[in-house]
Specification:
By secondary structure, the chain is mainly beta. 15% of the residues lie in helices and 37% in strands.
Length: 281
């Protein structure tokens, strides 16, 4: 069974999802629609279709097709949790670095579900927040973990395997995977890294120090970040763009390469460098 996972705010009327369902069924595949971002606004979903929930996918599901932007793929990954399922992205967003297909490549969907396309693994980050020596929050990120002030500058100190790497006052810091290097990290001046690489990128956000630059470190390293001198100032931690977890003075964030990976289907229509060149014009 193929899970079609549209963002109904991008796929208007689920027009592309309908085409995908029809094409797959005519080719002999079972397919169902599992929308994302619709829990709070169910009226956005057409009444003439039936829907499932991603968190209740059966073992018979062999692939998820995310129809939307990069945020749609991130949402699908989070809903799948520990389940490693190949994901194919069809871009209906503005940038869509993570999606391997554009709407004009739609017919390549059949190649993908027939197993004719390679699957590339993307590294993830395990995230742990400690407060007073105790773990108070854990999560996993495909794109990034971000510490950001609520409109205030925050003091950040970061270590790599216990060695201090940077300390600055600014809006915050981004710890990203290579997949996430084309997201918020890039907007903050961080480097673009090939998505199948194995590395952790540490990028300051609007640092009040000219010497505060991005670091690209081996994926085998552990990065720790401490929020300091918050006091009446407020800051939060966000994972892959989710709602923030409020931080307190002295909280310590630990980020390391996860044993889990995300499997992305690559039909080979265009390379990452071709995608980057066109989308960054």
């Amino acid at each position: 069974m193929i899970a079609i996972c549209p963002n109904p705010f991008r796929d208007n009327g689920l027009a592309l999802s309908r085409q995908a369902i029809a094409m797959l069924r005519s080719a002999g595949f079972e397919a169902r629609i599992f929308p994302v971002f619709a829990d709070d606004e169910p009226d956005v979903l057409p009444d003439d279709l039936s829907y499932g929930r991603l968190d209740s996918l059966g073992e018979d599901c062999t692939m998820a097709v995310a129809i939307g932007g990069d945020g749609t793929i991130l949402s699908v990954v989070r809903h799948l949790g520990d389940r490693s399922l190949p994901i194919l992205g069809i871009n209906l967003g503005t940038k869509g670095f993570m999606a391997s297909l554009e709407p004009e490549d739609f017919m390549q969907l059949l190649r993908a579900v027939r197993g004719e396309c390679p699957v590339r693994s993307r590294m993830m980050l395990d995230v742990e927040l400690r407060r007073g020596g105790e773990t108070v929050f854990t999560d996993r990120a495909l794109n990034d973990a971000v510490i950001h002030g609520y409109g205030d500058c925050v003091q950040i100190t970061a270590w790599c395997d216990g060695e201090r790497m940077t300390s600055f006052s600014g809006d915050g810091v981004i710890l990203s995977t290579p997949t996430g290097s084309t997201g918020y990290s890039m907007s903050a001046g961080g480097p673009i890294v090939e998505p199948t690489a194995r590395a952790i990128i540490v990028s300051p956000i609007c640092a009040h120090m000219m010497s505060a630059k991005s670091f690209v470190v081996s994926a085998d390293r552990e990065i720790s970040v401490r929020t300091e001198k918050l006091h009446v100032r407020k800051a939060f931690l966000s994972i892959d763009g989710t709602s923030g977890f409020d931080l307190e003075n002295g909280d310590e964030l630990y980020v390391r390469r996860s044993a889990s990976v995300v499997q992305m289907v690559d039909p080979g229509i265009r390379s990452f460098y071709e995608i980057a060149y066109k989308k960054l014009q």
